[in-house]
Write the structure tokens for this entry.
Amino acid sequence: MRQEPGGGGGGGGGGLNHQQQSVFDLMKQTLQSWGLGSLVGDLRKLIVQGDTATDTLALALSQTQAYKKRFAGNEVRVKNGLPELTPAQYIATEEQYQNVLRSYGLPQGFYDQHTDFVKLIGNDVSPTELDTRAKIAHDYYTAAPAAEKQLWQQYGFSKGDVIAGILDPKVATQVIQDRANEIALGGAGLAQGFHVTEKRAR
């Protein structure tokens, strides 16, 4: 029964009958699409032990640390009294987040890892809400006059800082709008030839 070695390989190795091989191939493809190719060996072991029901196999695999890490946002959702997302729903939400961010020209490498979206998913931030937050950053930073951008930097905010702050689920959209209005007031002051401090803008 010890047939685990090589279980993560292309065809699943020998020792599986036709039905087992069919289930293995199907679920292997699913795991790889979820970014969980590391669990292929665990999958094969379960099938060799006699389990060929996809539901129970999926349940068993969902108890592994690799699975929990991949869909870590679900643990946060449970703590927040929210229902878990299915893997398909979870991945679809991640893809929608990425599409939103790309639409605003964010570079690759910024908020494009699975771990980057744990808090957003865990706190039930919808792609629409993320779009609203990203638009605020776009409108008040990317499209802002040079004087206002200088004030962002003066107050200690880079463009990346602004975007990251907006992506934080704990930061309310209204707070970001208020902050941007402070910067706009300061920029208007500079345009008129006088300095408006952060405190005075507030």
